[in-house]
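Fig. S4 source data, part A: sequence.
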Amino acid sequence: MTDSTTSQSTKLPAGAAFPTFEVPKFGGGSVKVGGESDRWTLLIVYRGKHCGRCKNYLNKLEKTYGDWEKAGFDVACISADPIEKVSDDIEKFGWTFDIGYDLQEPEMRAMGLYVSDPLSTQETDRRFAEPGIFCLRPDGTAQIVAISNGPAARPDLDELLDGMIFTIENDRPVRGDA
């Protein structure tokens, strides 16, 4: 177990520049996170292969993936899982969006995510990030920051997409302060 006094996450405020980093991408290359882009970004951090709720969430994402792209979003999902676990899930579920793997704890912390130890070796063999869903503006700032300390609380993807389309079409600012 790590020392919680030295490894605490700092919650990422809405409107802040999103941290910039890369993780390896299934199929080759890398998933680049943060920084400026020509498009909006939907970034989903998921717990990993051991999480049935994550699989359900990513299956729902697959059904709406084309709608997200049509709305002007690049879509990526990342986890701390190694390539073998990611490969197994992609083969089983047929996900077509970009999936990054081997997310490291410093990047989890930089995004303000909760980080958990596995409850047993049957769950997983490494620390992992709890769920985080981020909508990033093309300038690299966080429009939406939705983090959870467990698998059961995540935004509904249809509602989120509808809200983001409204936000983009009406040039809405980032809402809320820390």
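Fig. S4 source data, part B ends here. The beta strands are 21-24, 30-33, 40-45, 73-78, 98-100, 115-116, 128-129, 132-136, 142-147.
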